[in-house]
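Before the break, one more example. Copy the sequence into your notebook; we will annotate it together after we see the structure.
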Amino acid sequence: MLVAWLAFVALVLLMLAIDLGVFHRRPHEVSVREALGWSAVWLTLGLGFSGIVYVAYEHHWVGLGLQVDSVDGSPNTGITAVEKYLTGYVVEKSLSIDNIFVIAMIFAALGIPAVHQHRVLFWGVIGAVAMRAVMILLGAALIARFHWLLWVFAGLLLVTGIRLLVSRDTDHDPGRGSLLRLIRRWCRVTDGLVGQRFLVRQPAVGGAGASWALTPLAVALILVEGADLVFAVDSIPAIFAITGDPFLVFTSNVFAMLGLRSLFFALAGAVRTFRYLKPALAVVLIVVGCKMLAAEPLKANLGSHFNLWLLAVVLGIVGAGILLSVRAERIERRGWAGRAAMPRVGNGA
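Here is what the structure looks like once it is written out:
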């Protein structure tokens, strides 16, 4: 099992090294066309990895598929492993879209130029992968020992989903957040950017020696990591509703996150037009929470492959949210165009 983890981590590091060292060696503003191309690459890799999952679990490579899944109480075959991987991938990919709103506001609040945003997101992904690996291993161990924690996770998903449905869409300024105030209180922060550097040495107060100071890029990186930690509290319980296999949880999480950077550059300018996407994601959380609570009846009525039904429902909800948003935007534009075309009535007789 350890061999599988090491091989996957090595694969991820290799892909990230190629990304940063070859294609993004020189800082540049990522265009929408480039972002869409990279989104297609990461999507292809994420979906293509399901073939490796099938073969590895079907033939029990390095012990995969021999242990009982703590969620449904059955070992994973090649088919069930692929179903859980793809369902987890789609759920995590859908929930990660909401993170784009926060990242965009962080960059806007700190004035991070588009040319440096890829560097922040790259190192943000590295930190997020390490952080989620710890959380997933800990969560899998706890669920295997205390199965009732699934009910706690289900309650957390239901509460979060309902809160997202009833909450109003208000802008949050990360520049006034408590985390940023804490950073500025305990650390020196430069007034402006210093190239692509996260840390610089500056003369100490009073002119005695020099001390390290954070740049706005470092502050943005810390805030992005903090945002991912908050989102992980919601998203990781969601995938534990699908499987307790830590390898499936980790790989689906990582591949969903790897495409987040390119997805950000592709959607950052248009994400606010998807007005019904946030309610759709809230419904996804509620559906996954209900699935966790009713796993046994669902398995008895829909069969062992009932995760395929969950995958179809999640895709349908997210797709409906996007289509309704696009339709509402078109209707609104037609309304404005119609009002602009109406002749003005003069005041004369």
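Residues 307-341 form the longest helix (35 residues). Residues 2-169+229-337 form one domain. Try to locate both features in your own notes.
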